Amino acid sequence: IALLERALALQPRRLNLLLHLARLKARVEAWRDAYDLLARLREVAPGFGDTEALWSEVRAHTAG
Fold first, then answer.
1. Residue 16 burial (CB < 10 Å; 0-12/13-18/19+)?
2. Where do the structural domains in the chain lie, given as residue ranges?
3. Nearest by Cα to 55 from 36, 40, 34, 41
4. CA angle 29, 39, 54 (to 5 degrees)
5. What's the rounded Cα separation, in Å, for the pair 38 and 28?
6. 61 and 31 Cβ atoms separated by less than 8 Å
7. Cα–Cα distance, 41 to 38 (Å, whole number)
8. Element (H or E) spanning 61, and its range?
């Protein structure tokens, strides 16, 4: 019974770790998507807008 109680006590930590990893994965995917979008934008319209302003907006939307 003590072993089962210890296993159950560890469960929330494991769940928190899995949730943290899921959030991290979502952030990485958001950055990758944003980078791909900006790369395509540069290909289509090289002189379009201020790249630093675009990156600032990307950072603001992906910050968590």
1. exposed
2. 2-62
3. 34
4. 80
5. 15
6. no
7. 5
8. helix 51-62
Q: And the tokens for 34?
A: 């944003």
User: What would the pLDDT profile of 24-56 be if each residue is shown by its tens digit?
Assistant: 999 899 888 888 887 887 777 766 656 677 777
- Separation of alpha carbons 39 and 2, rounded Å: 56
Q: Tokens in use for 5? A: 């109680």
Please indicate, yes or no, whether the overall pTM of this predicted structure exceeds 0.85. no
Q: How many Cα atoms are found within 13 Å in the side-chain-facing hemisphere of 25?
A: 6
Residue bearing tokens 């395509």 = 40
